[in-house]
TrEMBL record:
InterPro entries: Epimerase_deHydtase, NAD(P)-bd_dom_sf, NAD(P)-dependent_oxidoreduct. GO terms for cellular component: cytoplasm. This is Nucleoside-diphosphate-sugar epimerase. It comes from the Bacteria. The lineage of its organism: Bacteria, Pseudomonadati, Bacteroidota, Flavobacteriia, Flavobacteriales. Residues 2-228 form the NAD-dependent epimerase/dehydratase domain. One of its GO terms (molecular function) is aldehyde dehydrogenase (NAD+) activity.
Amino acid sequence: MILVTGGTGLIGSHLLFQLAKSGNTIRAIYRSEKSLKKVTKVFGYYTENPTQLLERISWVQGDITDIASMEAAFDGAHYVYHCAALISFDPRQLDDLIKTNTEGTANIVNLCVAHQVKKLCYVSSIAAIGKATKGKISTENNEWTDTNVSVYGLTKHDAELEVWRGSLEGLPVVVVNPGVVFGPGFWRSGSGSFFTYANKGKKSFLPGGTGFVSVNDVTKAMITLMESDIDRERFILVSENLSYGEVLKRIAKKLKVQEPIKQAPFWALELFWRWDGFRSKVLGKRRRLTKNMVKGFRQQETYSSEKIRTMLDFEFDNLQDILTFCCEKFKN
């Protein structure tokens, strides 16, 4: 029995599709009936009969922050993919991020140990990878520091510590650290906002850049690692390191809209994060830009996936293929 948390998210829903297609016995966690519609939508991007595959999934309503609600889901589970997380870079949501990402992961680890799960795969993030010095490439061995790190990155790092704690208690584990994950179906949040923004034909783009990867590469790596004998290892999953401008230009070209031509000036970003902070305090609105985010825009972050390429002879898909696929689904 395979158990998946966060099955209604971008990575989780694509993982469920791959597992169901392979005929596995699957159980997945969901929080609300509304969220299940997202999974049906994602399955429909890849098959004309999503219902047939969805019937292979046994759904259990639960919340990773409530360990009692998760007990039944772990009954008979042999392998666990922990994809559930809260993604936010708003400092005002730090308590919620800690509760979901760090404490929620601690709950999953404790349940895995208690139920003698054979292996756990945890979906972390490149936000939990230590920053490389300017001009250097980030690897899994970078030293972690709390300097200029987002609140999201802090909680994902602490969540990884919970996973390593579980490994010391005898739980076999693997951790993946994906870059920005591109996949269809979630157009109003995360990487989906790249398509929404580009479709508006905006002229400007943010400075800096980071690592990007296809959602199908992420799920393929996760499944391969879980089926291997590899234990107590973490892997960066990045197929290309690109500037935000280059990504938006590629998307705009495929959407056949005006490509962005102008990088947003730093003086404007410095003013905006201050105004955004004031707006958040006065009106209680969610932060869209923070001081740390602007600092991150001042350099191109570069990540190496050499470790997984070498250990698994892993080959990443062409990133342009997933961008093209996403653009087609976005237009539809």
